[in-house]
Amino acid sequence: MFSFGKRKGTVLGLDINSDSTTLIHLEKTKAGIEVAHFACQPTPPNCVRDGLVTDPFTMGALVADLIKESGVPTGGQSPILNVCVPAQAVVIRLMPVPVGMPAEELADVVTQEATNHVPFPIAEANLDWFQMNATERTDPDGVRRVDVILAAIQHSIVESYWRMADAAGVKLGKVEVSSLSVIRGLALAGYLGSSGHISMVVNIRQDATDINIVRSAMPLFGRSIILGVEALTEAVARSLDISFDQAMELLPEIPVFNITPTDTRMGQAGQVARAVFSDIGDEVLRSLDFYRSQVGDVKIDHILLSGPGCMLPNMHEFFASKLRSKTVLADPLRDMIVDERQITERMRPILAALIGSSIESTWNPSITVDMDLNKEGRIPLGLDQNRTQNIFEEVETVKAPRWFKPGLAASIGSTVVVFGSYLYLTLLDLPLTQSAIEKSTTSIAASRTDLTRLKKEKEENAVLLKRKALLDRLVGGIKHYSNYMDVVRENTPRGIQLTELNIGDEELKVDGAAVDFSAVGNLSVSLGTSPAISESNIEYASRPEKQPGIVAFSLKAKLNKSKPASEQSKPPAAPINTALIDSEVTRNE
Predict the structure, then answer these.
(1) Chain segment 147-174, per-residue pLDDT in tens
(2) Domain range holding 163?
(3) Contacts of range 67-71, beta carbons closer than 8 Å, 24 or more positions apart
(4) Of 315, 340, 363, at which residue does a domain stop?
(5) How many domains does the chain have?
(6) Would residue 456 count as lying in a domain?
């Protein structure tokens, strides 16, 4: 878990967004934790897509520039680079296990769970898991259980970060999930440490927003919605008829709440921002309602806001008014020694994920989830033709026979004769040959220029298509799949524990556990009678060998082609995966 073998050089944290890339180095001194080195630069265009690195070589050069700019010492051991990956790139599951399960048996159970639920071959996955002892409880069947959080990511994604580290001349350290890294950073700042303290962490990233319900620094429920700063910027650019970059420059000055706009243009931008944040607030409330429907009425002590979306002024006051709850702009640096000339007050909430990836586990007074999707180090990509590892085969040394030297001398003599003839013919026709070479070189250079231009246009078209899709989703309205979550909540009888809920355009899939088979049948019948559902079928229902006290089940329900009343005016949108972190549904608080 702790990857001691990789922690020899200076540990650096790196946070990569489509807009900017930030690097930090923290040191623990007698006076406290200090920001020793810090640097931030714009991310080159077309190098990051959906929060993941797509051009590791260009990003590697940027990381090298950041290290040089920050003044991190490069002598001795190579620096260790910790990075965060977006939650939607990782398969994350919560699974209950009996308390006291032996480590070997737990590893087998977790691996089997990953095999059943990871949507890509398990041989191509990096896995890690963490037992969250703070979630220990007695379930209705009388068994003491504790939750284990499992994370899986594809080898190829981690390999892209290895290539970036190679290009930067550093070593790749921990690969963490951004939403869990934010929780670690806020726990270090003292926002989440109280026993039984329940908070909501809303991290508004560039491409999405992570919503997590946290108790004692342990995640209980989470999901991601495809609404973030990029969607907001696209909406502002469309509304004001300006470029994306111009709209991005306006964001820090847009009046969101309780600020008089300086002109009509900024007032219009403020209306757009409030519309986007209102949609995010609706999803926060729906997530909380869904969680309460599963575990009972729980009190949320406060809502913590973090991420690049916090750059807009007074946006926390807007969320406090919208959600009717205490809302705080989380400052992960509030107890650290910071040079205000390097990091401004407004920038602090944006750095929560960066701080979480940079700290050592022993620094945090609270026990938090500490997972590393690169704990095994670099893994060969097998048959992947795009692998970059150099694998050399040993070549057996063979002693040359006796005739080798005379034969070699004869070959050299023949080569000299042939080469002399070649030089003679070449020198006679040299002007013509040089002219032909120059023409060929000019033609090749022109072709390369055309290929480069075509590649750039293709990449720009891909970016524009992505931005158009985000904008259409925003301007045209968002289909709240949470309405179907309401249908599931209203029709879920007692004795049912939901572990996964996936909603597509035509069907809804529910996985979970029940106290008996009749509860599963009641759930299927209840869903089938809902106006939003055309039919509901049980895929399977059985008692697992290792947990005979429960019934594991899966059922599918076809969505009614005639939409519910709440959906009639909403255009279709891409399905939202609500199983990024599964909720515990029938626990005794």
Answers:
(1) 889 999 999 999 999 999 999 999 999 9
(2) 4-363
(3) 67/12, 67/23, 67/39, 67/168, 67/170, 69/39, 69/41, 70/23, 70/25, 70/37, 70/38, 70/39, 71/37
(4) 363
(5) 2
(6) no
